């Protein structure tokens, strides 16, 4: 082969030596493959075309290429097209080959890093869960087969062995895929488990439970003679079961189960059930739930601090007495009934329904629905940016309700009421106390039968005030450029009750309420 290549090089011009080197690499690669298959070097060279013929073909291609670019040509168009197509194919092939050779080390590095991750995954699950992870095992075998094929071009003399190993790994991975699929073990599902945990002391009893799994959680009031206890039932990972078994439960339950991490991608334990039994009259120092998803039914809890965090799922709360309370829910519905606490609620898109609650209230929402009834609070702060807020039949010293482009509806509520919006709607009906309504470009509607002191302002939004004629009030209305109507403009002033309505460019309608 060395003699053959020397003769071939002599047939190439000096300016074409780069093309010769590319051809040399191809011939040496072909020789290595044939030698591995058992052929001799002489047999391989004997089947090659003479060096002069290969060089002649190369320069014939160059001549046709020159003919293509020439101003005049005597070469047939079909021949030119054929040569052009073959030349383009060769160029594309060489370009792809060059790109692959350039990126091959990076591809190999990514494959090795991924394989390393799966090997760590296998080790951790075997060590902590006593389980052979199905999908990571299969993917590890497939990655090994691919890595062997990537490095094959760098190991010329062992290509047959590498091909055999790759085929064996591929076959083994397919067999394991079939086995794990038939036995339903592709995903790790833990094992069935049931446990009752009882506190040995009620003094300063506290409860904290966190989980990233799907949990159905319930609290149940039991006899005052019993002690707080917890029941867990479902499928759990072996590591979580050991955590429960080894825990200390004197006067506090503090459990964190099914914590999601990068090594739990192929774990699916399913929904578990947790019941917390609380003796009647027991006051907990702390009650905390932190869940990714689940359904919660929390009843009859007395605690100094009530803290609840849920990403997805529904919450039903009733008869909760606490000094402070915090509820954070991303997408679920929150229902609170007949409770007493200073409460902060943060919800993204779910419904928040609160009835019969005593204590200060703060609600931060994005685009959900908030329905509030029968509240008794010193301070109520409602901020629902693009959702809908409804407050009815409540009493507060001070209300501050804001929105960006949502709806704010306040009915039959007593107190110092301040409601503001930017582009959404404000509706006020039969409220008592002092009323301040401020809107940007949205609609503002107020309906009053009784007397009230109020200020209503708007930039460009429409204002409509319906006032019952039976109560003497002073209504002053003004708009700079909008349409104006005031049915109470000629009535005698009442200095005790004043309604002041102003708009820059919106229409203002002050109308007599008709039954």
UniProtKB/TrEMBL annotation:
This protein's UniProt keywords: Coiled coil, Membrane, Transmembrane, Transmembrane helix
Record domain DUF4097: where: 219-367
UniProt key word Coiled coil: yes
Membrane-spanning residues: 99-123, 135-156, 168-188
Coiled-coil regions listed: 10-37
Protein's recorded name: DUF4097 domain-containing protein
């Amino acid at each position: 082969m060395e003699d053959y290549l020397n003769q071939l090089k002599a047939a190439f011009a000096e300016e074409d030596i780069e093309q010769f080197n590319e051809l040399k690499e191809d011939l040496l690669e072909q020789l290595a493959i044939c030698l591995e298959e058992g052929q001799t070097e002489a047999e391989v060279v004997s089947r090659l075309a003479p060096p002069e013929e290969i060089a002649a073909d190369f320069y014939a291609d160059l001549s046709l290429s020159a003919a293509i670019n020439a101003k005049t040509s005597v070469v047939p168009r079909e021949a030119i097209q054929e040569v052009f197509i073959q030349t383009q194919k060769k160029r594309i092939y060489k370009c792809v080959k060059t790109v692959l050779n350039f990126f091959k080390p990076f591809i190999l590095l990514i494959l090795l890093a991924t394989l390393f991750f799966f090997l760590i995954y296998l080790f951790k699950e075997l060590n902590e869960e006593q389980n052979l992870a199905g999908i990571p095992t299969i993917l590890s075998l497939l990655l090994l087969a691919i890595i062997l094929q990537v490095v094959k071009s760098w190991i010329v003399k062992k290509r047959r062995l590498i091909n055999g190993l790759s085929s064996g790994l591929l076959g083994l991975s397919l067999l394991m895929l079939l086995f794990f699929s038939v036995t339903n073990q592709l995903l790790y599902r833990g094992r069935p488990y049931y446990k009752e945990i009882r506190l040995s002391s009620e003094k300063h009893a506290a409860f904290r439970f966190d989980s990233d799994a799907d949990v159905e959680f319930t609290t149940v009031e039991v006899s005052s003679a019993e002690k707080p206890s917890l029941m867990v039932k479902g499928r759990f990972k072996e590591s979580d079961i050991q955590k429960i078994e080894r825990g200390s439960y004197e006067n506090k339950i503090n459990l964190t189960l099914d914590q999601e991490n990068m090594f739990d991608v192929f774990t699916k334990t399913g929904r578990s059930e947790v019941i917390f039994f609380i003796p009647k009259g027991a006051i907990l120092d702390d009650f905390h739930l932190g869940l990714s998803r689940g359904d919660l039914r929390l009843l009859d809890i007395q605690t100094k601090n009530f803290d609840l965090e849920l990403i997805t799922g529904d919450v039903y709360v009733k008869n909760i007495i606490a000094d402070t309370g915090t509820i954070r829910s991303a997408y679920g519905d929150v229902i609170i009934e007949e409770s007493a606490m200073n409460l902060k609620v943060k919800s993204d898109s779910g419904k928040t329904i609160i009835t019969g609650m005593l204590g200060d209230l703060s609600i931060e929402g994005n685009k959900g629905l908030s329905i509030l009834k029968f509240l008794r609070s010193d301070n109520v702060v409602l901020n629902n940016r693009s959702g809908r807020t409804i407050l009815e039949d409540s009493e507060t010293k001070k209300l501050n309700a804001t929105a960006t482009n949502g709806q704010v509806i306040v009915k039959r509520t007593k107190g110092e009421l301040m409601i503001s919006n930017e582009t959404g709607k404000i509706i006020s009906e039969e409220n008592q106390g002092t009323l301040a309504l401020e809107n940007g470009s949205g609609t503002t509607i107020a309906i009053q039968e009784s007397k009230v002191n109020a200020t209503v302002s708007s930039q460009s939004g429409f204002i409509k005030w319906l006032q019952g004629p039976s109560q003497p009030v002073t209504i002053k209305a003004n708009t700079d450029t909008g349409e104006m109507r005031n049915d109470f403009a000629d009535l005698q002033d009442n200095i005790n009750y004043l309604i002041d309505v102003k708009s820059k460019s919106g229409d203002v309608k002050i109308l007599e309420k008709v039954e």
